[in-house]
Amino acid sequence: MYHVVCATTNPAKIQAIHQAFDDIYGEGCCHIEPVAVDSGVPEQPFGNHETRTGARCRVMNARQVRPEADFWVAVEAGIDDDSTFSWVVVENQNQRGEARSATLPLPAVILEKVRAGAALGPVMSTYTGIDKIGRKEGAIGVFTAGKLTRSSVYHQAVILALSPFHNDVYR
């Protein structure tokens, strides 16, 4: 059984990581341990580089907290141009896998508040009345009418980031 350290305590992200590991390695393949670690970037990262840096820093910090784990995984959500997206970073002792998630275009009324300094989650909670929406379906769930959720989009990206770990051609 793999010991997988999630560099987050966010239930939407943990669910995505757990499901992706079950899908790739088989149900019940891992023990997930969430840890709260710093991203080294602002609460609301902007741009591809800052968001990817946040995910990489989270993995690095999770490795320091739980060096005995088999895998360390981080999901960092950010804003790029007029959209929200995330970077996923997965590491084990020998290699790293990274993948960028699908992007969701955001409405101007939401972007205006985010660009003024507010993080997307609180802006969406105010807009929808859903407390801590970033720990639930997120903006993705709201604007896709529930067809996708934060977790379902992250799930795909985690599966993509896991590709180097179970395909010999990456080694």
From TrEMBL:
<dbReference type="InterPro" id="IPR026533">
    <property type="entry name" value="NTPase/PRRC1"/>
</dbReference>
<dbReference type="Pfam" id="PF01931">
    <property type="entry name" value="NTPase_I-T"/>
</dbReference>
<feature type="binding site">
    <location>
        <begin position="8"/>
        <end position="13"/>
    </location>
    <ligand>
        <name>substrate</name>
    </ligand>
</feature>
<feature type="binding site">
    <location>
        <position position="38"/>
    </location>
    <ligand>
        <name>Mg(2+)</name>
    </ligand>
</feature>
<dbReference type="InterPro" id="IPR050299">
    <property type="entry name" value="YjjX_NTPase"/>
</dbReference>
<keyword id="KW-0378">Hydrolase</keyword>
<comment type="function">
    <text>Phosphatase that hydrolyzes non-canonical purine nucleotides such as XTP and ITP to their respective diphosphate derivatives. Probably excludes non-canonical purines from DNA/RNA precursor pool, thus preventing their incorporation into DNA/RNA and avoiding chromosomal lesions.</text>
</comment>
<dbReference type="GO" id="GO:0009117">
    <property type="term" value="P:nucleotide metabolic process"/>
</dbReference>
<keyword id="KW-0464">Manganese</keyword>
<keyword id="KW-0547">Nucleotide-binding</keyword>
<feature type="binding site">
    <location>
        <position position="68"/>
    </location>
    <ligand>
        <name>Mg(2+)</name>
    </ligand>
</feature>
<dbReference type="GO" id="GO:0000166">
    <property type="term" value="F:nucleotide binding"/>
</dbReference>
<comment type="subunit">
    <text>Homodimer.</text>
</comment>
<feature type="domain" description="Non-canonical purine NTP phosphatase/PRRC1">
    <location>
        <begin position="7"/>
        <end position="165"/>
    </location>
</feature>
<comment type="similarity">
    <text>Belongs to the YjjX NTPase family.</text>
</comment>
<keyword id="KW-0479">Metal-binding</keyword>
<dbReference type="GO" id="GO:0103023">
    <property type="term" value="F:ITPase activity"/>
</dbReference>
<dbReference type="GO" id="GO:0046872">
    <property type="term" value="F:metal ion binding"/>
</dbReference>
<keyword id="KW-0546">Nucleotide metabolism</keyword>
<dbReference type="InterPro" id="IPR029001">
    <property type="entry name" value="ITPase-like_fam"/>
</dbReference>
<keyword id="KW-0460">Magnesium</keyword>
<dbReference type="InterPro" id="IPR002786">
    <property type="entry name" value="Non_canon_purine_NTPase"/>
</dbReference>
<feature type="binding site">
    <location>
        <begin position="68"/>
        <end position="69"/>
    </location>
    <ligand>
        <name>substrate</name>
    </ligand>
</feature>
<dbReference type="GO" id="GO:0006772">
    <property type="term" value="P:thiamine metabolic process"/>
</dbReference>
<protein>
    <recommendedName>
        <fullName>Inosine/xanthosine triphosphatase</fullName>
        <ecNumber>3.6.1.73</ecNumber>
    </recommendedName>
</protein>
